[in-house]
Amino acid sequence: MAFLSDRAAIANDRQMTVAPAQVDSVDLLGRLKSMFQESESMTSDSRTLAMRDREYYDGEQWTKEELEALRARKQPPHVSNRVKRKIDFLVGMEIKTRTDPQALPRTQVEEQRAEVSTDILRFIQSDTRLPVTFTAGSADVMIEGVSGVEVIGVQKKKGIDVTINQLAWNTIFYDPRSTKPDFSDARYKGVAKWMDKDDALATWGNSDDPADAEARQAAIEGAFQDGIMHNGFDDKPGGGNVWASSDRKRLLVISICYREAGVWHYAIYTGGGVVENGPSPYLDDEGNPECFYILTSGYIKKSDNSRYGLVRDMIGPQDEINHRRSKLLHMLNVRQVIAETGAVDDVDKARRNFARPDSWTEVKPDKYFEIVKNEDQVQGQAALLQEAKDEIEQLGPNAGLIGRGVENQSGRAIQAQQQSGMTELALIYENLRDWRERVYRSAHFRARQFWTEEKIIRVTDQEGAPKFITLNKAVPLIDQATGQPVIDPTTGQPAIERVENQVSDFDDDIIVGEGADVNVIAQEQFDKLLELAKFGITFPPEFYVRASSLRNKKELLDSLKKKIEKSPEQAQAEQDMLDIEHETAAATINDKNASAMQKTAAAGKLEAETFSIIKTAAQPPVPPRSAVIPFRQQTGV
Question: Do 473 and 501 contact (CB within 8 A), yes or no?
């Protein structure tokens, strides 16, 4: 965790100071220790159950006493881990619903700044591997019920980087009287972590002020003289649940944010004293100190404000699945026998034979011997086992969410099924969405606070190509007469006309939308538009681009807009070209028509001549006049 070393690394930075240890901080130390001990004692039962929930996710679902009882009656301890499969699926669904952060302008003149703010957030998201952190946090919320991150600044060679660190759920403590899932009403929030003594001395033992250095070292050494027990925050592995462990010289270090007189303060302390304290060095959008721990939770038990996740409701069905499955296997492997005394020569040998699938046991013919059938008991156990499986499977996702049985359904029908399955998870998913949004807002505040020098960030555009953005870019004042930068006589450096993309001036609203399950519906509507076009019902081109799911819609719309918005000269030139094309096309059509008419006339003439020849050939030949014999001569009359 960065609060141990990274925060000390920025102690000497001009933009951020770390308050020295107070020699007369006995009263402060007492108050700080009482906060931690109050949280520890009042959330002890909740933490114990949370650790059990994690064990169930990890497959450790039988207690030590239960395993011993099973071994005594030779019953197999079967584990069918439905909890892990269910949680992994729900975390995967949460990942699919995420969208990238977006900064919205508060005024029209800030639209361009909002785009740069969006790029800044996406750079931080990539640079800090934030999606991985969110995934781990989602799993913690669904299993243990609590998760969080710290959003801080870390000094690097080229300036202060915005850093977002995951907090292990079992190191987080908080005001047990908080009743809101985002802990916005908590008076204090913090982290407890064990570290080696030499690391602690290297981190805080040195100071330019000898008195301050002595106070810091005394606070670290004093931790080994405090014997207060701390159940639930013990050093793992190996135990050691006090302020310090003498075996390896390890001590418990507390980092806490606490609200005092309406202002957020922070402190780092041990059992022996306060190492650092003062107002929080991180500022919100109003310039006020803010808590750098961003926490969230799943569900809240109203009777004691304890936090828990989805696994808590799966424990009962999971236990029933394991116990009934184990019992069912045991019933199938054993036989119940009713027999008279002396029916077999060796009872123990007969029992061993009955457990074998190819057993052979001889009984005396004059003795009663019966193997009791237990088919009804086996069927009853199997039915109850299936009911327990159904109960745990019905939590959250249904067939629509899983993607089964929806092959022939429309997009709206698929969405209806998915929404019905997500309804049960709406509360916990909304808490996670709000948590991500608060993390992005804090990251934006850190960038505004610490990114004051020129900085180049690299982001990926919609086509996947890299894009470089210069922040806080100083634009020199140019002399219009010479075209050269104007030199400031007081500094000897070029005078600055303006600063482009000045991050400290950005004032945006950060939102994180959810990936709503409307993609299939949008695609279905777009397909309907294309179907209408086939029947002659068309719309302007930009209408189709807006309705599509293309990634580069903005660029396409800009290109269409440029084609529409043309200068008069371009429009006249294009019109002249169109007129020429029309005249050329008309001349070509006339030529083709004339040629076609000539071909038609020739074909008609040929057809007439051919018809005449055929008609002539079909008539009988007419003999010459001299060859005609008078009828009188032919008949002899």
Answer: yes
